[in-house]
Specification:
single chain; alpha/beta; 6-stranded parallel β-sheet; two-stranded antiparallel ribbon; 9 helices; 10 strands
Length: about 220
């Protein structure tokens, strides 16, 4: 059984035959200038910097024949699945559904809602459009993983403290063992990422484990 001896807070063993990779929301609207992330006043450069690392993780998981799940946070064109509390918060220069440089912000089917080209899903990989922060909410992700008899989930994507952490906590509550690739996830706020990594692995991996992409890739070769 593959084991990551350097994982935190202690070694992580898993059955690769029952493991899947979930890549959270690596979308143009969050990662590229002019999208929703930038509209909220954020510097998107830190998120863009993890694209090569996430690509390396995808390559390793594909080589090991793991099921791959990609998620996109986006909404129906009529915004019927976007509550006002989500759309109206704060004072961004663009809100969900507004016209932006890559089409309507976070709307399904618009260019900005698509996954960045370097991480584009391969044929046969599962793509989920999710209206919430967690990938299990209002989607069939749970049923999909159950059909495949998956018990372990490897996570990458953005942002660490919001959609990634929310999905990991949802998965933990459903009995999955969760492993986050530390260098294939990012936040607009470095301190938020650091705090989230600490929270995930606190109290004996209360939510899950963390490891580097290199460590995960090496374990998948075992």
């Amino acid at each position: 059984m593959p084991t990551i001896a350097e994982a935190q807070p202690f070694p992580f063993a898993f059955d690769a035959r029952r493991t899947a990779l979930i890549v959270i929301d690596m979308q143009r609207d969050f990662i590229e200038p002019g999208g929703f992330g930038a509209a909220l006043g954020n510097d998107v450069a830190p998120l863009a910097r993890i694209v090569p690392t996430t690509a390396a993780l995808l390559h390793a998981c594909r080589a090991a024949a793991l099921p791959i799940v990609h998620t996109r946070e986006c909404h129906r064109p009529d915004l019927s699945d976007c509550p006002p509390a989500k759309r109206d918060r704060g004072a961004p220069n663009l809100r969900i559904g507004d016209d932006g440089p890559m089409g309507r912000i976070l709307i399904s089917g618009e260019p900005g809602a698509e996954i960045v080209p370097a991480l584009a899903p391969h044929q046969g990989e599962y793509v989920i459009d999710k209206p919430g922060k967690g990938a299990f909410y209002a989607t069939d992700l749970g049923l999909y993983l159950e059909r495949l008899q998956i018990r372990t989930l490897i996570f990458a994507g953005v942002t660490t403290e919001v959609c990634v952490q929310t999905t990991m906590r949802e998965a933990n509550d459903r009995g999955f063992d969760c492993l986050l690739a530390e260098d294939a996830t990012e936040s607009y706020f470095p301190e938020f990422k650091s705090a989230t990594l600490a929270m995930i692995r606190a109290q004996g991996a209360i939510v899950g484990w963390t490891a580097t992409t290199r460590q995960i890739a090496e374990a998948l070769k075992e």
